[in-house]
Design brief:
Blueprint: H1 11-14, H2 29-38, H3 51-63, H4 67-73, E1 74-75, H5 79-82, E2 98-99, H6 105-118, H7 121-140, E3 152-157, E4 165-172, E5 175-182, E6 185-187, E7 191-195, E8 200-202, E9 205-207, H8 211-222, H9 226-232, E10 233-235, E11 257-258, H10 264-278, H11 283-295, E12 301-306, E13 314-319, E14 323-330, E15 339-349
Parallel strand pairs: 1-3, 10-12
Antiparallel strand pairs: 2-3, 3-4, 4-5, 5-6, 5-7, 7-15, 8-9, 11-12, 12-13, 13-14, 14-15
Helix pairs in contact: 2-7, 3-6, 8-10, 10-11
Length: 358
C-alpha cells in the first residue's frame, strides 16, 4: 500500500545518527582533494563510463585479493544480502564484505576504479565527499562511534560476468551505493546519500555536500506560481525520508504539484534537479535514465514540506512512474545538532531497484 506521509524516526534513534558529506555535481576543486583523501588512486582507471568498464574494474579488484579476502567479499545475490545496507555507523548496523581498513593501498585503488567505472564524475565526487566528511565528523563528534574513510565496506553479490546479473555494494555511514549490472545495462538504485556537515573544508578546499540537490530544489519551489506552490507544499513540518533502508518493495503516493502544469521554464528547473540525482550513475546508463525521466515529466509530482526560503530545513519528494527521490534535512539530530547541516537522501527506481527489470 502506498505510504502517504513521511513518518518521523524516534528521537532516541536519531540522536545516534550523523552523516558524511558528498559534494554536489557543481563542486569542482574541492572534490579532487576529497577523492584523493578518501580512496587512493588506482593504475589504469577505465573511464569509459559503461557497464563493461565496471566489469573490468571489478575483476581488476578481485585479482588483487588473496583467497581469504575473496571468500569474504563474494556472496550470493539473494534478497537478504542485497538489503543488507544502512546509513548507520558500523556499531549500529552489522555489515558484510571487506572494510576499507582491511585493504592494502593498491586494493583501495581497486575500489576507486570500481567507483570511477560505475558512477559519473559527479557520482564519484559525491562518494568521495561523503567519506572525507565522515573524517571531519570524526574530529568533532561527541559520540563513541567510529567515523571516517576506513569505515566503509565493499561487497560483490553474484558472479561478475558479461552475462547474468551481479551487484557491487559500497557503503557505510550515510552512504549506500548498489551498482547492479546485467550485460550492457546497469543501475545504482537504491542509493542513499547523506551529508553532515553541509559545508566543510578539507585539504584547503571547501565542499558543499548535496549542494546542487539543495539549491536546485529551492530554485524549483521558488519558481512556481502561487497556486502551484499551494499544491506542492503539503505541510510546514519536516520529516524523515520514507523509503530508506529496510523499505525495499514499498511505494509512496504521488502528492504535490504535477509537472504537467509547469511552464517550459519550470520544466527546465525540474529537469535540472532530476539530473542531480539520476546523473550519478555512469554516463552511458544516465543517458537512458534521463530520457525516461523526460518522457515521464508530465506524470511527475513534486511535493514539499517546510519553509520555501533557502536556509530553512525542508523535506521534498519527486515521484514518477519510474523514480522516487527524497531529500530531508535532519532537525537537531545527529552527532552535533542538525538542521540544514545534516541531510538524508534516497534515490530509487520503481520496479528496478537492484536491477529487477534489467
Amino acid at each position: 500500500m502506498p505510504v502517504r506521509t513521511p513518518p518521523r524516526i524516534a528521537a532516541a534513534v536519531l540522536l545516534l545518527l550523523a552523516a558524511g558529506c558528498g559534494p554536489g555535481g557543481e563542486d569542482t576543486g574541492a572534490t579532487t582533494t576529497a577523492a584523493s583523501a578518501a580512496v587512493p588512486p588506482a593504475a589504469s582507471v577505465d573511464a569509459s563510463g559503461s557497464p563493461s568498464a565496471l566489469l573490468s574494474a571489478t575483476n581488476y579488484f578481485l585479482a588483487s585479493l588473496d583467497a581469504a579476502q575473496k571468500q569474504t567479499v563474494l556472496a550470493e545475490r539473494t534478497p537478504a544480502n542485497l538489503a543488507q545496507w544502512s546509513n548507520l555507523p558500523d556499531q549500529l548496523f552489522p555489515r558484510a564484505g571487506l572494510r576499507m581498513d582491511a585493504l592494502s593501498e593498491d586494493q583501495k585503488g581497486g575500489v576507486r576504479k570500481i567507483l570511477r567505472s560505475g558512477l559519473s564524475t559527479e557520482g564519484f565526487n559525491q562518494v568521495a565527499g561523503i567519506t572525507t566528511a565522515d573524517g571531519v565528523l570524526a574530529a568533532s563528534a561527541q559520540m563513541n562511534l567510529d567515523f571516517g574513510a576506513d569505515h566503509y565496506w565493499v561487497r560483490i553479490l553474484g558472479t561478475p560476468a558479461a552475462t547474468g546479473i551481479w551487484t557491487v555494494q559500497y557503503g557505510g555511514h550515510h552512504l549506500a551505493v548498489n551498482m547492479t549490472v546485467r550485460g550492457d545495462r546497469m543501475t545504482i538504485a537504491p542509493t542513499f546519500w547523506g551529508a553532515q556537515p553541509a559545508s566543510y573544508t578539507a585539504g584547503g578546499s571547501t565542499s558543499e555536500p548535496l549542494g546542487g540537490e539543495t539549491r536546485k530544489a529551492f530554485a524549483l519551489i521558488g519558481g512556481l506560481d502561487a497556486p502551484q506552490q499551494r499544491a506542492a507544499v503539503l505541510d510546514t513540518a519536516v520529516s524523515e525520508i520514507v523509503l530508506g533502508a529496510g523499505q525495499d518493495g514499498k511505494r509512496i503516493a504521488n502528492e504535490g504539484v504535477r509537472a504537467a502544469t509547469f511552464t517550459d521554464a519550470q520544466r527546465t528547473l525540474l529537469t535540472d534537479l532530476l539530473t542531480e540525482w539520476i546523473g550519478a550513475v555512469n554516463p552511458v546508463a544516465a543517458r537512458a535514465k534521463l530520457a525516461t525521466a523526460a518522457r515521464e515529466l508530465d506524470q511527475t509530482y513534486f511535493a514539499w514540506y517546510g519553509d520555501t526560503t533557502i536556509g530553512h530545513p525542508v523535506y521534498y519528494r519527486i515521484t514518477s512512474p519510474s523514480y522516487v527521490i527524497e531529500f530531508a534535512h535532519q532537525q537537531g539530530q545527529g552527532a552535533n545538532a542538525g538542521g540544514v547541516t545534516h541531510i538524508h537522501g534516497i534515490y530509487r527506481e520503481l520496479g528496478n531497484d537492484y536491477g529487477a527489470s534489467l
